[in-house]
Amino acid sequence: MSKKIVHLDSLQFNVAGLLTGPKGGTRSYDLYIPVSELDQLDEGFDVVAPFQGTARFLWTKDHIMAVVTGQTTVTLQCSRCLEPFHHTVHVQIEEAFIPTVDMASGLPIARDETDIAILIDEHHILDLSEILRQSILLALPLTPVCSPECQGLCPTCGANRNREVCTCTTEAIDPRWSALRMLLDNLDTDPDHPNP
Ligand SMILES: [Zn+2]
Ligand SMILES: [Zn+2]
Questions:
Q1: How far, in Å, CA of 185 to CA of 177, rounded?
Q2: pLDDT over 70 for what percent of the chain?
Q3: pLDDT at 167
Q4: What is the pLDDT of residue 1?
């Protein structure tokens, strides 16, 4: 059993060595997947940084349990101000990959499994691409915001309130209104005993 960490820049792993080895065999990898490879995964996200993390495989004689953790960065559009921003995506994958060829006989193993993403192909390649694609999609926020403090766009003139103060907002903060507000608040102080 090797303890050596191998650095990899691909999402395809030849696991023939694991599959022919004893139950309990493991492989560990440091992952550094370049943007060029991540970009091809899905048109739904725009990756701007390599995926950096680790992959660990455990052979159980029935399947290879893959545990992958890491992170990458994607560009998202803020739902409030509509500006693009960088968002770090943390991925944690635990998935059982199953072989389709019996290593001893070289014969195909009949599988009912319809999810081809988790099948190890006839060349003993375990491919993390599809599982990683799904994990990144799932990790994306439903309502992306560039910052919790994002002020969004002015509904009246469309100005980006993070960058400019438009005239539409001055009315709401007019000091004369706050004076009136205080007056109204004082009238409301005893609502249970209103004057007849
Ligand atoms: Zn924003
Ligand atoms: Zn405005």
A1: 12
A2: 81
A3: 87
A4: 43
Domain boundaries, the chain: 5-139, 151-190
Residues measured by CB to lie within 5 Å of ligand 2, the ion? 154, 156-157, 159, 166, 168
DSSP 153: B
Q: Is the pLDDT of residue 169 over 70?
A: no
**pLDDT (tens digit per residue) in 45-55:** 999 999 999 99
Per-position b or e across 83-106, b if 16+ CB within 10 A of its CB:
eeeebebebebebebebebeeeee
* Cα-to-centroid distance, 187 and ligand 1 (Å): 39
**Distance from the alpha carbon of residue 180 to the mean position of ligand 2, in angstroms:** 23
Give the distance (Å) from ligand 2 centre to CA of residue 162.
Answer: 12
Q: Which distant-in-sequence residues (6+ apart) come within 8 Å of 19 by Cβ?
A: 59, 64, 99, 103, 120, 124
Instruction: Tally Cβ neighbours within 10 Å of residue 19.
Output: 19
User: Which are the contacts of 107, defined by CB distance < 8 A and separation ≥ 6?
Assistant: 101
Mean pLDDT of 112-135: 91
